[in-house]
Amino acid sequence: MMKMKSIAFLISLLASSTIAWDHTDEDEFRRAISGHNHALVAFIEPSTAASQALESEWAIATESEKKALMSIDCSSAPSLCQEFSVISYPALRFFDGHGKMTPYRGPRRASSILSYLKRALRPPVTTLDSEAKIASFQPSDDHTVIARISPQDAHINAVYAKLAAQYKDRLSFGVAAETVSAATATTTISCFNNADGQHFSITDLTPIDALPKLIQTCLEPVIGAFTRASETKYLRSGKSLVFFFAATPAERDAYVDAMRAVAKMYKEYLVFVTVDAGEYGELAGPLGLVPGAFPALAVQNPMFGQVFPYPRSREITPEAVGGFLMDIVQGKVKPWDGTLSADEGVAGHEHDEL
What we know:
By secondary structure, this protein is α/β, with parallel strands linked by helices. It is built from 13 helices and 14 strands. Strand 1, helix 3 (49-64) and strand 2 (69-73) form a beta-alpha-beta unit.
């Protein structure tokens, strides 16, 4: 189906060979959070699909950070989980070692979890006292914000600090020291989306929502994840959507890496999204795709109610998808008529839902 699929399968196979929860018991957990050590705790229920999906990512993360990560099996310790307001699974909570608990709401991926831990241990704003430190700070996280504040705009520091406190769970914030920004004539706030290679800056801070808008723009991925929570946002974007369905995170990650340049090229007209085929596989049918036959891709124009299923026989590559999009624009591909041919009525292989 696509070259990246075999690579993604091997990655997931290797990861699955070492997967195993190593839960902390209640006494050990209480000792850990009552001391001055920080910890990110996953409260899980082994029978839930979402907890099972987290297992491999958590195992990868704990290989790099054993002391700060722990998990609690809520099926064995229900009263403990209830005590910490766990009502759905998995629930991730960060304990700062000083009695404060903060919910973790970021992606449940090993890289995101480890990045969050690093941010949690930093002050909300890191002072950067040289150009060299600014240069090294900029690529230090998936999303970084650097402020160069002119001496005449000293009041901006308080606004920036408040913003950093609000978003420090998702971005790393830095500010050039006064010695570095002394010659700065115009205050500039820059946000770097290092994951997608994008950079956004503003100098006009007059609008009250200038900084929040900058952050939201910077956080928006070139290729996002289509979920129930994000569905309305994408369907109301006013653009056509390019859906990619895959059952495993490894397959979706490989697609994002391969297709990022194409998504950037068409971002004014199209929104590219990935879909967890295990959790939202029922969305494939209305897009003209064979249920259970994943990976698969389709284009939808919500404004005109048109869908264009990508041919199952065609490999999903940046070049092929780019050509398919151009064929749609030029009228060479007709919208789906709502029927499946006989050979498309069943999946070509079995599909195990997550």
